[in-house]
Amino acid sequence: MNEHSTAISTDPLRADGVRTDALRAELERFIQTREFSCLGARAALKRRGLTHRHYRRLGDEASAEENHRDLVAYVDAVRPLLSDQSFRTFVATFEEPGTVDEHAYEELLWRHLQHMHDLDSRTFGLDAGASSDPEQAHFGFHAGGHAFFVVGMHPGSSRASRRFTTAAIAFNSLTQFTLLGENFYSMQDAIRRREAKNNGSVNPSFTEYEYEQPARHYSGRFTEEDWKCPYTSRHPPATEDYTQGLLPHKR
């Protein structure tokens, strides 16, 4: 199965590939719009490093099981290919729900990730230096022993850079980020300048919380100060912390 293929399904909505192909085209168009800020995703698209799969419903247990299966296969395929020059991302899109508000999307996102994690933790452990505890600064969503930073997108997002036509999740390798070294900060600065120019401001979640608690950034909603992540880790505590070398957050 190549990086441009889609999840195999007997679902009549997708059996002929028309819906999936249309969403792939829409995803590529969205990534190239002025409002979309992530330069890493643009680079992944340009270098044919974007993998897309389509599922029935966000938060649904069966869809989460399919998503987990495909993401583990993706990890096996791309882990040896990651480098300081690689830009790769896995994007899952969902037929349902339609347009929902940010709180409803956030609830469905974490329900979906919890289903995936419950499956994953039965077989796989932690990535080196990452935690699956969402309270920690070195939190990463794990699949196949590999940690990801998750970017949620949906039609009801208040941020234009996350306002895709259907519910979606982008899984970005944390290893890929660390391999970029200082170039990570240069790209981050460029992304934020782009977002401020094209969307009026930088996402306040990043300016307020920065590296303190990455789980706050997943859904794209600006979370309350007393927000608690609705996600329970099944893994033991991490013994290393890859974030120790990151720039400190300053309020």
Structure description:
The protein has 251 residues and is α+β, with helices and mostly antiparallel strands. It has one domain. Helix content is 35%, strand content 13%. The chain has seven helices and five strands; from the N terminus they run ααβαβαβββααα. It has helices at 18-31, 39-46, 61-78, 102-120, 174-179, 182-199, 204-209, and strands spanning 50-57, 89-96, 141-143, 146-153, 168-173. Strands 1-2-5-4-3 form a five-stranded mixed β-sheet, with helices on both faces. β3 and β4 form a beta hairpin. α3 packs across α4. It is globular and about 40 Å long. It starts with 17 loop residues before the first helix and ends in a 42-residue tail after the last helix. The model is unreliable at 1-18 and 247-251 (pLDDT under 50). InterPro entries: Uncharacterised_YqcI/YcgG. Residues 229-251 are annotated as: Disordered. This is YqcI/YcgG family protein. Pfam families: YqcI_YcgG.
